[in-house]
Structure formats: structure tokens, C-alpha cells
Design a protein that fits this description.
By secondary structure, the protein is α/β, with parallel strands linked by helices. The chain is built from twelve helices and 21 strands. Strand 17 and strand 18 form a beta hairpin. Helix 2 packs parallel to helix 9 and helix 8 packs parallel to helix 9. The structure holds ligand LLP.
Length: about 425
């Protein structure tokens, strides 16, 4: 099977973390998100250890919590001792309520309001990752009112093409994120920051894109960023001590996606950082990265119940499930590929190619097209794999569909991390 937390039981049912998924579907209802807690912890440890082994002391990965945000994941991340990337006061608030120290949080995003900045400072945010000059002035002014000196990173764009879907590529000059190096604006911004009294520049940040399997885009951006650090130092005397290379390592959604060894990819990036720093004769900075998807995606699956199977002769077979774009909008948004298994008949050959359709009143509400699957009937349980990232966090109540619960599994424990939304939750804010 594509991930090592899946196997088929003697009764033909799909098992996840050693448990019968059909039984779990009966127990908790569907749609249902399941997550493998130990796999999340293992993956965090791989990153953390690689950072300790290959980068200078003090280099720590951050979990990009937009991938999956709820109190329990922040508790896990805090227990494992890595930092947290938040992109809204909502994520920050959830993290703090879960016991994460705001000091260990990095607040990203291209448009933080004055209210966001004030709230984050009041929480004691460790760093803002400042995205524009407007924001830099706002942070400085609010920090002044609050009589503090606020540490920040400056997000710049290294102009790298990571060869990924254009909606998830973010490192080019023409981007809503960051300040371009190529146009000279990033250097000008640094000069400006150095004149301000209530912010302290800790280093630079970049992010090239998501679902990247090769270390090359990271190595290329590391080289550009180190050259930028050198140029800034020559022009201003300021030497950045930290460099954040962003997130983006990929995961396997389908068998044809490559298997990725994160430790060796991180080593390749570290080798490049060391080589270029030496060539430029600058100290090797502390390195940060912000993996989201690669920490949680393959720790999650979603279970659905099949409602109808519609065969249109000489056209297609539509298998409709009791969820869809409301719990997983990724096919609708990016035509993302998924592996789907008929969990009730996981021992049977995938002999049909089907469209897996959601329940929303929207033709584009699909989980995927041309998906090989063992013939399905009403009542069968379908498992969509690799849904631990950007599924629950991107879920919506479109058509007033309640969001599914998240159940966490370990070898000897099973618990609800997020409850199922009720119909009363759906109307809770209506006056
Ligand atoms: N850091 C920054 C600044 C980012 O913008 C992102 C993702 C990450 C880190 C984490 O990237 P990851 O390691 O998860 O690839 N909703 C899309 C992905 C959008 C990602 C946006 N930023 C999806 O479902 O594929």
C-alpha cells in the first residue's frame, strides 16, 4: 500500500493504524477524518533531528499549521519541541489556547491588520514575518505604542520557479507575497527597517511553493538568499543571523508520486547552505523551514459512505459519497490527485474507473475523476488517502453541510480531536 499505516484485514476491510476502517465508520459515522498520531510525531522527529544534525545550533523547524489546525495538533507540536507558523489570529489563538508559547510562533501572511498585529503582540508573539513596507511601519508603530521592540523576519521573493501548480507557487517576483530581491525593493526595505526603533530584524524568509519533491528549488533559493544576506551586509553592515527557507516538501498522493526521504533532502539543502556560505565568506546562519503538508498529510485519511452508483453507458460511472468539496476542496481547486480505496472490499481488484462525486449542489464538487476503484455499492465505505493536510483546515459549510470530526489513532489509543459539527452548530451564529 502507498503508506505504511494501511493494510487489508482477513475480512477484506481496509485497516488504518491497525484498525478496521469499516468498524470505525460505523462507530463515528461518515464523513470521518482519521489521523495517525504516531506518524505525525515520527515525521516531526525526522525533521527536528535532521535540523539538529545538519544545521547550526538553534536551527528549528516550524510546523506550518495552515495544513491542519486544531488544539490537539498544537499540543503534539509543542510536546515534540518545534516552533509554529501561524497565518492568522485564529491560528495563533488556537495555538495559545492549546498551550503553545506565543514566543515560539511566527506570524506570516501578506496582510495583517492593525488589530491582528496588536493582538499578536499582546499574546507575546515571537516573530512577525513581515511581508510589506506598509506592514513594517504598522508593526513599528504598534510596538512603539506598546513600548516594546518587536523581532521580525522580512519575507523576500527569490524568484524561483518550483515547478508546481501555479496556485501553490509563491516565490516569484510577481507574487502577492514578500518583497522582491530582483527589483532592489528588498534591499531598500532592509535599509528602512534599520532606521526604525521598535522593530528588530532577526533575519530573512522566503517560500518557493508547495508539493516540491526535489531539493533543487530549496538549494537555489538558499543560494540567492545567502547572496542577499551578503549584499545587505556589504551595503548596510547588518548581518542576518537566521534564514527561513519556507515549507513545501511534497507527499505521495498517488503511487506515481516519488517516495521522499526528508532527512536526505534536508541534508542536501544543508550541504548547499554550507558550501555557499563558505564561498561567500559569511557565517552559516541558523536555518528554519516550515513544513506543513509533509508533517501531516500522509497521517490522514477520510472515510465516506457511498450513496449512489450511477453508470452512464459509454460515458462514466459516478460514485457519490456523503462528503466532497466541503471536507476536501483540493480537486475542485487544484485538480489534485488522490488514491481512493473501497474500504469494504479492499481485497478486491480496482476494476472500475469512476468519478468520485461529492454531495454538494455543484457539478465541480468532485474528489477525483478516472479513479481506479473496486466496484462500489450503496453502503460501501470509501477511503480517500493522504488527506491529513489542507482538508480539515480548508473545509467549509457550503450548502450548510456540517464539518466531519477528526479522530486520532495510536496503536493503543483512539480519541476525538475535533467533534463533528451539529446542525445547531450550523445555526449557532445566526440571529
Ligand atoms: N510556509 C509558507 C510561507 C507557506 O505559504 C506555506 C504554504 C507553507 C510554509 C507550508 O507549505 P507545505 O509544506 O504545506 O507545502 N492549500 C494548498 C497549499 C497552499 C499552501 C500555502 N502555503 C493545498 O491544498 O495544496
Amino acid at each position: 500500500m502507498i503508506h505504511d499505516n494501511l493494510n487489508v484485514a482477513a475480512n477484506g476491510h481496509l485497516c488504518f493504524v491497525g484498525r478496521d476502517t469499516v468498524a470505525l465508520a460505523q462507530k463515528y459515522g461518515t464523513p470521518l477524518y482519521l489521523m495517525d498520531e504516531e506518524k505525525i510525531r515520527d515525521r516531526i522527529r525526522v525533521y527536528k533531528k535532521a535540523f539538529e544534525d545538519f544545521f547550526p545550533e538553534g536551527s528549528v523547524p516550524e510546523y506550518a499549521s495552515k495544513a491542519f489546525s486544531c488544539k490537539q495538533i498544537y499540543r503534539i507540536v509543542a510536546e515534540e519541541g518545534i516552533n509554529v507558523d501561524v497565518v492568522s489570529v485564529g491560528e495563533l489563538y488556537t495555538a495559545v489556547k492549546a498551550g503553545v508559547s506565543a514566543k515560539n510562533c511566527f506570524y506570516h501572511g501578506n496582510n495583517k491588520t492593525d488589530a491582528d498585529i496588536s493582538f499578536a503582540i499582546e499574546q507575546g508573539i515571537g516573530h512577525f514575518v513581515a511581508d510589506s513596507l506598509d506592514e513594517i511601519y504598522a508593526i513599528d508603530a504598534i510596538a512603539k505604542q506598546k513600548e516594546i521592540i518587536q523581532p521580525i523576519f522580512l519575507r523576500v521573493t527569490p524568484d524561483i520557479d518550483p515547478h508546481t501548480h501555479k496556485k501553490i507557487a509563491t516565490g516569484s517576483v510577481d507574487s502577492k507575497f514578500g518583497i522582491a530581491i530582483k527589483t532592489g525593493q528588498a534591499l531598500a526595505a532592509v535599509k528602512e527597517i534599520l532606521t526604525l526603533n521598535n522593530i528588530k530584524l532577526s533575519g530573512f524568509h522566503c517560500h518557493v511553493g508547495s508539493q516540491v519533491f526535489d531539493s533543487k528549488p530549496f538549494c537555489n533559493s538558499a543560494e540567492i538568499m545567502l547572496e542577499f544576506i551578503k549584499e545587505v551586509n556589504e551595503q548596510t553592515g547588518y548581518m542576518a543571523k537566521s534564514l527561513n527557507l519556507g515549507g513545501g516538501f511534497g507527499v505521495r498522493y498517488v503511487e506515481s508520486d516519488p517516495v521522499i526521504d526528508y532527512r536526505s533532502k534536508i541534508k542536501e539543502v544543508a550541504d548547499k547552505v554550507n558550501e555557499v556560505s563558505k564561498k561567500l565568506q559569511i557565517p552559516v546562519p541558523k536555518i528554519m523551514m516550515e513544513p506543513g503538508r509533509s508533517l501531516v498529510a500522509d497521517s490522514g485519511i477520510t472515510l465516506y459512505t457511498v450513496g449512489s452508483v450511477k453508470e452512464i453507458p459509454n460515458y462514466k460511472t459516478y460514485v457519490s459519497v456523503d462528503g466532497g468539496m466541503t471536507d476536501n476542496p483540493r480537486y475542485t481547486l487544484y485538480e489534485s490527485k488522490y488514491t481512493v480505496i473501497n474500504a469494504t472490499n479492499a481485497d478486491k481488484e480496482a476494476d472500475v474507473k469512476a468519478v468520485i462525486a461529492g454531495r454538494c449542489c455543484e457539478s465541480g464538487d468532485l474528489i477525483g475523476e478516472d479513479i481506479p476503484i473496486a466496484k462500489a455499492r450503496r453502503g460501501d465505505i470509501l477511503a480517500v488517502l493522504t488527506t491529513g493536510a489542507y482538508n480539515y483546515s480548508m473545509a467549509s459549510n457550503y450548502n450548510r453541510v456540517p464539518r466531519p470530526p477528526v479522530v486520532m489513532l495510536t496503536k493503543d489509543n483512539e480519541y476525538i480531536a475535533v467533534k463533528r459539527e451539529s446542525l445547531d452548530d450550523i445555526i449557532a451564529l445566526d440571529e
